[in-house]
Structures are given as structure tokens and as C-alpha cells.
Automatic annotation (TrEMBL):
Comp. bias regions, Basic residues: 67-76
Native organism: Scleropages formosus (Asian bonytongue)
Alphabetical list of Pfam families matching this protein: DUF4750
Keywords assigned by UniProt, alphabetized: Membrane, Transmembrane, Transmembrane helix
UniProt name for this protein: Small integral membrane protein 13
Classification via InterPro entries: DUF4750
TM stretches of this protein: 6-30
Region: Disordered, residue numbers: 49-86
Cleavable signal peptide: none
């Protein structure tokens, strides 16, 4: 009787331990591959170590301005017809 009860407790504790270890390992992998790239999440966790993107800043005194992804559009001008002008 006591053996089967002890074995049941051991199985339940071992199962919970395996699930916890699996969750911690999964969180670590997801953190390393994806979540650590976001500065906001690093600040929430308190990680102050510089990331690879932060370390690749230009080392020269003159920094390059950020390049725009899209061409800047000229402001729109309203075309006034001769009838509206008078």
C-alpha cells in the first residue's frame, strides 16, 4: 500500500519537474533566438548587456545619418483653375 502511494508521489513530482524543465528550456531558446532582439523586452527583464546590433555602431567620429527606406514625397500643390481664380 505505502509503496504504491510513494511511487505515485514520485511519478507526479518527476512529471512536474520534467514539465518545468521543458518550459524553462523552451523559454531560454525562444529568448535567445527571438525575444532578446527587442530592446523593450530586454528593459523589462533588466538585461543591460549590449546586443550585437548595439555593438555594431560605427566607430568613427562622424556617424552616418539614417537612410530613408522610401523616397520623400514633395508636398501636394493645389491646381487652381482660371474660373476659380477670378
Amino acid at each position: 500500500m505505502w509503496q504504491s502511494l510513494g511511487l505515485t508521489v514520485v511519478v507526479i513530482v518527476a512529471t512536474l519537474l520534467c514539465v518545468l524543465l521543458f518550459m524553462l528550456f523552451g523559454w531560454y531558446v525562444v529568448w535567445q533566438l527571438f525575444l532578446s532582439k527587442f530592446k523593450f523586452l530586454r528593459e523589462l527583464v533588466g538585461d543591460t548587456s549590449p546586443q550585437q546590433a548595439d555593438a555594431e555602431l560605427p566607430r568613427s567620429g562622424a556617424e552616418r545619418p539614417p537612410t530613408p527606406r522610401h523616397r520623400a514625397k514633395a508636398p501636394r500643390q493645389r491646381i487652381v483653375s482660371p474660373q476659380d481664380a477670378s
